[in-house]
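Forwarding the complex inputs:
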Amino acid sequence: MSKHIVSPIVYIVIFVSLMLGTAITIWAAFQNFGKFNIVIALAIATIKATLVVLYFMHARYSLKRTQLVIVCSVFWLAIMLALTLADYDTRPHESRLASANTCYHA
Amino acid sequence: MHRTGDLYGQFQTLEQQKETATLGMWIFLVTEVLFFGGLFLTYTINRSAFSTAFGIGSNTLDITLGGGNTVVLIMSSLTMAMAVWSAQVGKKKLVGIFLIATLGLGTVFLGVKAIEYKQKFDHHLVPGRGFDMKYHPTHPMPGDDPKELALEKKEVEEAFAHDPDINAHAQLYFSLYFGMTGLHALHMIVGAGLLIWLIRGSFRGRFTPQYNNPVEIVGLYWHFVDIVWIYLFPLLYLIDRHR
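Prediction (whole assembly, two chains):
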């Protein structure tokens, strides 16, 4: 672990960026970007998460081994998402999931 | 555990001890990524299959409370990072202050969550018997804005027209809402417990520039819980808001 001490100024800059990201996310949610609404929301969330990991969690200043572990987590998550969605998203539209009868009816 | 000063017996140097603990926490966070990841995957599949229900369900959530909670949690990550910094530069008093601030903000978050949950219970939006999307628009409660309630009634009726099984499908949305935010809140409570442990240590002057790793790794856990919320907020609160 490096002896690098991150300055509070960096933390404040990141904090302000995260606040900005939150505001933009809410604003964008009320605009009609059609199919891109979800893309924008996830893109902003990923940028915010990356800032937190790099600076608040000190990943930027960590050992290469730590950075590898972080990359691995994203990779394994990607496998889970990609292979599962490859199944569900290639099913016929009408029979996506189990019928509504399996849920409680009010 | 055999300890000489800050160095536990199984380690050769403080550096090695610190690296080991940090690696351990990161590997635990990897398991957490996959833990929450499974729920996010479930959400993805259900949302694409029942988009109308997810849209109308999401519109029952209060963006002021959710957005406010997002700000509170990000602020708590700032105070947590500042607690680590304070220990690194030897400002022992500040460590305790920033840790208490983090705990306070976390408690505010949980309080707001409790208020939100209570609202859902009152509006018959808890999955199971008694769940009814039509309940709130037809049963006004004190403090409801009549114009907003009329708009909500109209939207619910439109949703029913689009998807007659809305009450069944919306329960999937609310199951995920309670499941994911509930699991997140559980993690916050564990984090609060860890913070209390750290606060006690900080009052005993335990955390110094030479030994502050416990603060660092509880910080890693806390930031991770913040990241989960950064994704939860848009995915649960901001679906179909442009209509």
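The two ends of chain A are 56 Å apart (CA to CA).
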